[in-house]
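Fresh eyes needed here. Have a critical look at this protein's tokenised backbone.
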Amino acid sequence: MNFKTIFKSLKNKEMRRRVIAVVSILVAYRILAHVPVPLGDATTFKQAVDNLINSTDLGGFLNLISGGGLTNFSIILVGLSPYITSSIVMQLLTKAIPRMEELNNDGETGRRKIAQWTRMLTVPLAIMQSFAYVYILFQEVLASNTATAITLTSYDWAIAVTAMTAGSVLLMWLGELITEQGIGNGISTVILCSIISGLPTTLAAVGQQLFDTSAGSLSLFGWLNIPVNPTWFLITCGIVLGIIIVLYFIVKINEAQRIITINYAKRVRGNSAYGGIKSVMPIKLIAAGVIPVIFAVAFLSLPAFVGQIILRDDPNSSIAQNLVSWFSAPNANNFTELTAESFIYPVMYFILVVVFTYFYTSIIFNAQEISENLQKQGGFIEGVRPGHETEKYFKRTVNRLNLFGALALGLIAMLPYIADYIFIMTLGRPLGLAISGTGLLIIVTVAIENLRQINSRALMVTYDDYRE
């Protein structure tokens, strides 16, 4: 990554315009995150949202990718989850329906049509999720003791659902506007901005504990005489060191890839010879990205959600109590000591991340199609026969990469729980960091990809300087 070229490109008027446009869109997005949904008493619903986030891992994850839209009870409360769900559904349908697969292979025109269908599918999904959010939050308000008689009219439902659906579609549009600027994927950039927006809250919480000297103090710098809490000073140093190590590990596994050399047979047509060259095919260690984590969170949150609904009708239901206890993500509000049940959710989470990594990779990496295309182009792998043997070679290679990649992705997803268990054994309570291992993975992946696109754009606008 040539940062010198990137800074030099900012002298170009067109490059500055693109950067300013992206920054302006992100500022508009952060403003939208503080526009409340026109539904009843905002304070009451905000408290219900806090209860929802603390009670389920899915709530916390959705709040993460909506940039605090859940916590603020804003019109972008639904966030990008309808668009992400729509994109995943369209990817699955493209592989399952031959007609859509042909359309996807038709080139830019076919891909644009599939992208249009993805946007169209986002709207009904956003409407359904908006209805679900309003219903769940209303039930949460009724179950709490902070409100008495609250009723929602049909007008209230229509206004709230319309505002939340419009916020989700507007967020999708802002993401596509960023993509059009050519310096990063818009949807990924919005999610990155969402995650980073939670850092000040985390830093404030850690700083409050660090400078709380009621239980003792330590002068951090003698000449400045800054008193800090000795215990939290060590904890802060450990957190910073741990984040640096984790970031290094994430960058390495995100960039890790297997390079396969492809040879092309030499062909003679008339007096001209073609081929006889070598090329490479990189296969990423974690080709599925963070999609397996999203699948795992959604799958694990369903039993706990069902259990909570049953408990509202029958508080004494043992089945519902077990569902909530077993499938609720451990956090500072629902566990303060280690028991056998404390390990059920993390273990299931790890297993599902591994399983979904294999599942999603098998969808996006079609070994049969790749081997057939290579055979048509006269390409082959040295020591491997074209056709079926090449297909078996690709499957074997991807499965081996998936074994380590899935375990690494599962370990990253487990990091917040491992950290909380360590703090329970040392401090008697979990730390509850806002940025999880999954959040760090998203930050690293998106940041590296955006830097690559910015670097490519910078090389384009400064090409004349290098040519001279």
In short: The mean pLDDT is 76. The beta strands are 218-219, 227-228, 257-264, 267-269, 272-274, 278-284, 379-380. The chain has 18 helices and seven strands.
